Amino acid sequence: MTSLLEPNSNTASNSKSGTENAALYRPLKIGNVAVGFPVVQAALSGYSDWPMRVIARRHGASYSLCEVMLDKFLVELKDRKRTQHFLHNTPEEQPVAGQLMGAEPEQFALGAKKLVEAGFAVIDINFGCPVKKVLGRCRGGFHLSQPAVALEIVRQTRDIVPAHIPVTIKMRRGLDDSQESRDRFFEILDGAFGYGIDAITVHGRTVVQRYIGPSRWSFLKEVKQHVGPNRMILGSGDLFTADDCLRMMQETGIDGVTVARGCIGNPWIFEQCQAIFHGKPLPPPPSLYRQRDVILEHFKLAEELYGQDKAGVPMRKFGIKYSALHPQSLEVRESFARVKNLLEWSAALDRWYSVDGPGVYPSAAHTEQECE
Length: 372
Known about the structure:
Elements (H helix, E strand, L loop, with lengths): L4 E2 L17 E2 L2 E3 L2 E4 L2 E3 L8 H9 L5 E2 L3 E2 H6 L19 E6 L3 H13 L4 E6 L4 H5 L10 H14 L6 E6 L6 H16 L4 E5 L13 H11 L4 E5 L5 H11 L3 E4 L8 H10 L10 H19 L5 H11 L6 H8 L5 H11 L20
Parallel strand pairs: 5-13, 6-8, 7-8, 8-9, 9-10, 10-11, 11-12, 12-13
Antiparallel strand pairs: 1-2, 3-4
């Protein structure tokens, strides 16, 4: 498999140069699952639920991953109304991946089986989460310190998941920047592909780095060169604009990118990527009327999933994120931080989005430290 993005004489380094930035790319395919456009929505703990994924899909995301779930939780999960939203997925958003995190190989595999039964098209293994409580329970990024256990999780998961369903992995570039961590990273990387893993997403920060400092894109280039053209590597880290997504692929030669914090409250990043990847000018930020319509659409999807009485609270965090595209972002953020139901949500929209006007591109300063 060759790189999805191949620079040519028309390709410029800055996507804002419009038609000068034309690029060729190959559609993304994970195992036998056709994804298409190589910019996808990452798994985001506490965020990438069904409403967010559907909104992303409607704005150009060709593929998405659900928020990470614990294997123990899935194994013990009962068919109850109050928990059914965790596994909810629909044909409109397919293909969608279920992401799993845990400590014990046997239980991990059983959790993966639950995701298969729920209808997820891909099973993703989380070896990257840097949150302290996760590491303390020997989950997520902790596995990068123990290749034998990590690879046993991979083996048992791949064995229990039907052959036609791809299994993928999310990793960081190591526990830290020591030579030992580097060696362990490549031991897991090579071993996982040896067990039949279909793709691996690599975040350019270490686990101990969490979200401090820049993501090391040069490491992604090294990884892609290491595995060669026939093994799929996706990249993650510091993707806040469409230009970032294009540059990561151009600079590293990876096969695709997974947008995490950069797409919360900003689903328009996917259509912006679609434009510049096809050599078109970067679209302007969405107008206030367009923002209003999508925010209301998102809330109604949340009501459909959680119920009218329960949608308001989980939607607050999305309102805060959407506010970053409003010229008066601080004031709008305060309004959304207090909403409890559709009536209050509509009042906030009437106050801040009743007059149309240009939006703004969100700043990376608005992002927070989600588990990606």
